[in-house]
Specification:
Elements (H helix, E strand, L loop, with lengths): L1 E6 L4 E5 L3 H10 L5 E9 L14 E16 L4 E10 L7 E6 L4 E5 L4 H40 L1
Antiparallel strand pairs: 1-2, 2-7, 3-4, 3-7, 4-5, 5-6
């Protein structure tokens, strides 16, 4: 996980999810009532007189939801954040689900407690360690392959 923006006076932290482990950390950080913002897609609003929205065209937009429930989907390795839209170009008050997955940026606004901050730091350190290990592996891998080739030739 990488922090892109942080303003603890406002309780804001914008993160980039880099690994599926980051989704698990966010699952343990987010709580009901937190505000989460992200880019998502919603069905384009058409006529007001329709009883139920049909399968209209999807439109990309940045929305903020007040979290109602959070779940970690192990089978798809993504975070499911369900809530009520509080800020968006349309559909304020409607339900929406945001998904957290590697490559996704999300803004979190909440009252940060010590254990939340500790968990966030843990996620950042783990991401750094994963990066460091893959960097080391890239350096060692050619040497290891050369050694294996040399042994096989004998």
């Amino acid at each position: 996980m990488k922090i892109l923006h942080q303003d603890m006076k406002k309780g804001e932290v914008k993160v980039l999810i880099q690994h599926t482990d980051d989704c698990w950390h966010l699952y343990n950080i987010l709580e009901k009532g937190d505000l989460v913002s992200a880019f998502t897609y919603r069905t384009k609003k058409e006529r007001e007189d329709k009883v139920r929205a049909g399968k209209g065209e999807k439109e990309g937009m940045y929305i903020t939801i007040e979290v109602q429930s959070i779940s970690f989907q192990e089978f798809s390795d993504r975070l499911r954040i369900h809530g009520i839209i509080v800020d968006a170009p349309q559909d304020i008050g409607a339900h929406h689900t945001l998904y957290g997955e590697p490559g996704k940026e999300i803004m979190i606004r909440k009252e940060w407690k010590r254990h939340h901050i500790a968990r966030l730091k843990e996620a950042i350190e783990e991401s750094y360690n994963q990066w460091w290990l893959s960097f080391q592996w890239m350096k060692i891998k050619p040497l290891l392959q050369s050694f294996i080739n040399m042994v096989w030739r004998r």
